[in-house]
């Protein structure tokens, strides 16, 4: 694809933003990168900063919504649009309105499904079979802006949140490639989400930031719910429990039709099995505290239940 003749101001801070920016640089001229400053306690690179430095992009690091507004009051940008992905700072109306065509956001769900901080994990937790990417023009309300386009993605069985993230980064990139040039030509009219959504069930739902406590497995829950938690939390907060007196992180498991007291651990057909509120989980891989990931069978070989 030939680069557009216009520039874009990119807003982003996290690892998803860094990967998206690296892809977008191939097709779009980035006038400036606006990202959060590296925290004083953070070790190593802070995601977007090294990408911007590698490509010699002008970079600004306001640390709050007030500082962001002050930046735009003091600095003139030529771009007619901004693009925000995985930024982490609220963008107020004065900043949005400084762009003639507004600020676009690539949100990783089929809005109005899973507005909020972590739509990817909640797509897996909910057990839905399809998600996607929504390209919207932002307003001051959380993920309620009108839609320019949506692209769907069928979630394979056993997919984890990191795998889904990678798939939607790629889908987002192709969507932006196609839609931004049309939007700059003013050939696309954004539509309200209730009209423009392609979701099979376009009911408003909200995700939230995960907490460390979410990773503690509650064996009273049904096995299929816990299996989805393990896939959703594989990156963070991870799914933790105690088996054979050892603190473990369960990294993958299968639902099997067995019943017993929730939390009881058994060996069934030489496999490590934990009973749940309904059915049971066959633990296929886990990571004992201080050790490498291993199979459930390897764990059984070294630990007595």
Query: Uncertain segments of ≥5 residues (pLDDT<50)?
Result: none
What is the alpha-carbon Rg in Å?
22 Å
Strand residue content:
15-25%
Quote the average pLDDT.
Answer: 95
Number of domains: 2
Q: Main beta sheet, described?
A: 7 strands, mixed
CATH-wise, what's the superfamily of the largest domain?
Answer: Formyl transferase, N-terminal domain
CATH topology of the largest domain: Rossmann fold
Secondary-structure element series:
EHEHEHEHEHEEHHHEEEEEEH
CATH architecture classification name of the largest domain: 3-Layer(aba) Sandwich
The count of strands amounts to: 13
| Distinct helical segment count | 9
- How widely separated are the two ends? 59 Å
Describe this structure in words.
The chain has helices at residues 15-24, 48-54, 65-74, 93-96, 119-126, 161-184, 193-196, 223-232, 296-302, and strands at residues 7-11, 29-34, 59-60, 81-84, 103-107, 130-137, 147-154, 239-243, 246-256, 265-268, 271-275, 280-288, 294-295. With 305 residues, the chain is an alpha/beta fold. The protein is elongated. A seven-stranded mixed beta sheet has the order 3-2-1-4-5-6-7. Strands 8, 9, 10, 11, 12 and 13 form a six-stranded antiparallel beta sheet that branches. It folds into two domains: 7-196, Formyl transferase, N-terminal domain (Rossmann fold, 3-Layer(aba) Sandwich); 212-302, Formyl transferase, C-terminal domain (Methionyl-tRNA Fmet Formyltransferase, Chain A, domain 2, Roll). The protein contains nine helices and 13 strands. Helix content is 28%, strand content 24%. The mean pLDDT is 95. The longest helix has 24 residues, at 161-184.
């Amino acid at each position: 694809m030939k680069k557009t003749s216009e520039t874009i101001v990119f807003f982003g801070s996290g690892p998803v933003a860094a990967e998206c920016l690296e892809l977008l640089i191939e097709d779009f001229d980035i006038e400036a990168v606006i990202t959060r400053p590296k925290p004083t306690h953070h070790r190593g690179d802070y995601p977007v900063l090294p990408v911007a430095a590698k490509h010699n992009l002008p970079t600004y690091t306001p640390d709050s919504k007030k500082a962001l507004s002050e930046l735009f009051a003091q600095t003139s940008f030529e771009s007619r649009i901004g693009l925000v992905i995985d930024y982490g700072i609220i963008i107020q109306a004065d900043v949005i309105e400084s762009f003639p065509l507004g600020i676009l956001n690539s949100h990783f769900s089929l809005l109005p499904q899973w507005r909020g901080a972590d739509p990817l994990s909640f797509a897996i937790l909910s057990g839905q079979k399809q998600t996607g990417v929504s390209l919207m023009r932002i307003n001051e309300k959380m993920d309620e802006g009108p839609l320019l386009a949506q692209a769907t993605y069928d979630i394979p069985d056993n997919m984890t949140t990191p795998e889904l993230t990678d798939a939607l980064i790629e889908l987002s990139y192709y969507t932006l490639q196609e839609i931004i040039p049309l939007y700059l030509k003013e050939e696309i009219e954004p539509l309200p989400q209730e009209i423009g959504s392609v979701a099979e069930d376009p009911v408003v739902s909200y995700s939230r930031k995960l907490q460390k406590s979410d990773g503690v497995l509650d064996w009273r829950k049904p096995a299929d719910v816990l299996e989805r938690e393990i896939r959703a939390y594989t990156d963070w907060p991870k799914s933790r429990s105690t088996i054979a007196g050892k603190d473990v992180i369960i990294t993958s498991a299968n639902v099997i039709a067995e019943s017993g007291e929730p939390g009881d651990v058994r060996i069934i057909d030489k496999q490590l099995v934990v009973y749940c509120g309904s059915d049971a989980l066959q633990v296929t891989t886990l990571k004992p505290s201080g050790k490498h990931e291993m199979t459930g069978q390897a764990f059984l070989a070294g630990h007595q239940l």
